[in-house]
Design brief:
The protein has nine helices and no strands. The chain is an all-alpha fold and 268 residues long.
């Protein structure tokens, strides 16, 4: 790899050097600014008053992000490892709408896809200091998936039964005119959201509703306990992740990624 490529790679993918940190900070600010532009442009009043200014800033940011995207492909040994990675696809999708609006005026509606750029903030933050924590959370969620599935199946069964009971108890006069609508009410009540668009009118129905609310408070804590327990067991099993191809099975202390061959420039 040439010296130029190596220097560019150390800035874009490295996080311990001064230049790398400055690049990450600049990237985060640019991404957040871009997201704010998209949000403001969606407000009719701001769009009518400052639409041209927003459009100009968006093109400046899009060109900068395009240069960054090209440099990421240029400086790594295996370009496809970045292009077809999750964040590589996100980067591309965040660029396409602006160019499409130039070629096809009617495609401006797809500009909302630009909000995908916010996902890039998570990548930068993860590489800077949250990589280990993000990986630990992923492992905890993966280890807990069967327990969470059983829990969700239990909750689904519960709301179907409770919704059916309320359909029989309350009936159409109280708004429980069919079982799916009654199940919807049971879900809203069990999660303690309580929209109030449907409410029981009979004494028995109100007693059942009160029991469901109390039950909801105890059920909410279950997923938290499952994931917390899994996080406790996986705390000491952190693994390295390649900054280029996002491969997570990297040995600590190695200098090159065993998937794409990228050289590590940080001390993950």
């Amino acid at each position: 790899m040439s010296v130029l490529k190596e220097n560019i790679k150390s800035v874009i993918f490295g996080t311990t050097t001064t230049a790398g940190k400055a690049f990450d900070l600049t990237l985060i600010i640019s991404i957040l600014f871009s997201i704010i532009l998209v949000m403001l442009d969606s407000i009719t009043g701001y769009h009518d008053a400052y639409g041209k200014t927003f459009y100009l800033f968006e093109w400046v940011l899009t060109i900068l992000f395009t240069i960054e995207y090209i440099l990421r492909i240029y400086c790594i040994r295996l370009p496809s490892s970045y292009i077809f990675s999750f964040f590589g696809i996100v980067d591309l999708l965040a660029l396409i709408p602006t160019y499409l609006s130039l070629l096809f005026p009617g495609a401006h509606i797809f500009s909302v896809i630009r909000v995908l750029r916010v996902l890039r903030v998570f990548r930068v933050l993860k590489l800077v200091q949250f990589m280990g924590e993000a990986e630990m959370l992923r492992k905890a969620m993966s280890a807990s998936k069967r327990k969470i599935f059983v829990f969700l199946f239990y909750v689904m069964t519960l709301v179907v039964i409770l919704g059916s009971i309320m359909y029989l108890v309350e009936g159409e006069k109280s708004g429980f005119d069919n079982i799916p609508r009654s199940i919807y009410w049971a879900i809203v009540t069990l999660t303690t959201v309580g929209y109030g668009d449907i409410s029981p009118q009979t004494n028995l129905g109100q007693v059942i509703a009160a029991l469901i609310m109390i039950m909801g408070y105890s059920i909410i804590a279950v997923p938290t306990g499952i994931v917390t327990s899994a996080m406790h067991f996986s705390e000491n099993t952190k693994s390295m992740r390649c900054a280029v191809c996002e491969d997570k099975n990297q040995k600590k202390g190695t200098n090159f990624c065993n998937n794409c061959g990228a050289k590590f420039h940080n001390d993950n």
